[in-house]
Design a protein that fits this description.
Radius of gyration: 15 Å
Number of strands: 6
Strand content: 15-25%
Order of helices and strands: EHHEHHHEHEHEHEH
Number of domains: 1
Structural class: alpha/beta
Strand order of the largest sheet: 3-2-1-4-5-6
Helix content: 25-40%
Shape: globular
Number of helices: 9
CATH architecture: 3-Layer(aba) Sandwich
CATH class: Alpha Beta
Length: 184
């Protein structure tokens, strides 16, 4: 088995107790923390979506419609329930797009070939997590999607995303927290 990068996508306060609150975040964060305890802190990366100060195209409308969230410092911080202990500061990465792979620092880490697989979890199933997985798949990188560590706004979204990703079984392996821990 190769070396895994553990990528936690955008688990920010806005998804836990804010305007975009996702379902069952206590359990999802507990699962993320369970995996984090089993891997080296050097291999854990957290991303945060922060709206661009110089948006282009449809991002201009996005920023205008979401100004309240974009301007709320607390909403944009990593959730306090996440175990970020011993994770190097450089492993906390800010991005301005849905896909974490579009963040230059994430892409350069992956392009360095330090990791054989990327383990993905976070929020939200139908947006930033899915965008990240699709970009990783397009780059030919094996992905492990942790089903019970991905948040969603509405009941059923996670199931739809899992159905889509299960059709990409050459590229994506779906696991739950226990299955992943048992595999490492």
């Amino acid at each position: 088995m190769g070396k895994d990068m553990f990528l936690v996508v955008d688990v920010q306060n806005v998804y836990v107790d804010g305007k975009w609150k996702c379902l069952d975040m206590d359990r999802i964060i507990a699962n993320i923390n369970t995996i984090k305890k089993r891997v080296s802190p050097d291999d854990v990366y957290f991303t945060l979506f922060i709206a661009s100060e110089n948006p282009e195209g449809t991002w201009i409308k996005y920023n205008r419609e979401n100004k309240e969230v974009n301007d709320d410092v607390h909403a944009n911080l990593l959730c306090e329930m996440l175990d970020t202990s011993r994770v190097p500061e450089k492993n906390i990465i800010y991005k301005h797009t849905y896909s974490s792979f579009k963040a230059e620092s994430v892409k350069s880490i992956i392009d360095s070939k330090r990791y054989d697989r990327i383990v993905v979890c976070g929020v939200t199933a139908g947006c930033c997590v899915l965008a990240t997985v699709f970009d990783l798949v397009d780059a030919g990188i094996p992905v492990i999607y942790i089903k019970d560590a991905v948040g969603q706004h509405t009941e059923g979204t996670g199931g739809y995303v899992e159905k889509i990703l299960s059709s990409l079984d050459v590229h994506v392996t779906l696991m739950n927290t226990k299955e992943y821990i048992d595999s490492i």
